[in-house]
Amino acid sequence: MANVIGVGGVFFQCVDPDGLMAWYKDVLGLTINDYGGADFVHADSARAFPMGARTIFSGFKSGTDYFKPSSHPFMINLMIDDMESMLARLADKGIALEGEPQDFDYGRFAWIMDPNGVKIELWQPIEPT
């Protein structure tokens, strides 16, 4: 029987794909591949967070405030390995946070907006006890 085992990619339209990916490279440190996107190898996140790394696929009720201030009907959550270093990097780049970083028993979170107006949720998983 066939099963869905993960998210294979997130693809979206934007006015300037090269410029947007250059922003992700500069601001968040993504490595851009030959096709103009970024590859996230699942083994890398599994090594960093053997039990905590995962991809959440979930709908939110229409009208939710969680994606604000974006007007897009989606948000992108990017898994990171070091929140403090990422926050310092964002400050150095002059990138404003959307709200204050928050800590939960399943991870640390911070939010920014990309140049395309998409809210980006940065998540550092915490290994479950």
Task: Explain how this protein is built.
The protein is α+β, with helices and mostly antiparallel strands and 129 residues long. The protein has a domain at 42-125: Roll (2,3-Dihydroxybiphenyl 1,2-Dioxygenase, domain 1). It is 22% helix and 16% strand. The chain has 3 helices and 4 strands, in the order ααβαβββ. A 4-stranded mixed sheet has the order 1-4-3-2, with no helix packed on it. A hairpin with a 2-residue loop joins β2 and β3 (107-113). The longest helix is centred in the first third of the chain and has 12 residues, at 17-28. The chain is globular, with a radius of gyration of 15 Å. The N and C termini lie far apart (33 Å).
Radius of gyration: 15 Å
Query: What structural class do you assign from the helix and strand content?
Result: alpha+beta
Using DSSP, what is the number of strands?
4
Q: Estimate the mean pLDDT confidence.
A: 94
CATH architecture of the domain at 42-125: Roll
How is the biggest beta sheet arranged?
4 strands, mixed
The helix-strand sequence is HHEHEEE
Give the class-level CATH name of the domain at 42-125: Alpha Beta
Can you tell me the CATH superfamily of the domain at 42-125?
2,3-Dihydroxybiphenyl 1,2-Dioxygenase, domain 1
Distance between the termini: 33 Å
Strand order of the largest sheet: 1-4-3-2
Sum up the overall morphology in one term.
globular
Q: How much helical structure, as a percent, in the residues?
A: 10-25%
- The CATH topology of the domain at 42-125 turns out to be 2,3-Dihydroxybiphenyl 1,2-Dioxygenase, domain 1
Q: Strand fraction band? A: 15-25%
Q: Total number of helical segments?
A: 3
Low-confidence stretches: none
